[in-house]
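Thanks for the sequence, V.! I ran Phospholipid-binding protein, PBP family right away. Repeating your input here for the record:
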Amino acid sequence: MGDLSIRTSSLTHGEEIPEKFTKEGADVSPELTIGGAPDDAASLAVIVDDPDAPNATFTHWTMWNLPPDTVEIPEGVPTTETVTTLGDASQGQNDFGDVGYGGPRPPKGHGPHEYRFRLLAVDTTLDLPPGAPRRELDTSLAGHVLAEDRFTGVFERS
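Predicted structure:
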């Protein structure tokens, strides 16, 4: 296939994330449109994080073992360890301590934070239990990422 891509109709790349997708609103995950997975991809992974967090990059969402032919992740993915509607994909623990998507909630007065929505094409199905933390996902992904794409959004609490 062509170049790996991740997009959303929920926000414009580099622009403000609508409140609906943050902890200030409904805290639901945005719809994601996926395309161009390499033919040799065995699975896909999604990582959403905030590199502007005060102490270290803050993980908001991890999902792995999505089928490589996935074309859309619908809005409002359930916060369960396994997502049966997405080919039994696994979700991990975010840095709020919950499983699944946890929307932006930067410290008040800390300025705008950039949130990275990353899609990775992976050459294997990851042997990682559902609910695993980000560090275990990063270890499992090492040496297995075939391609990556991303878009960003911004959110600030004043």
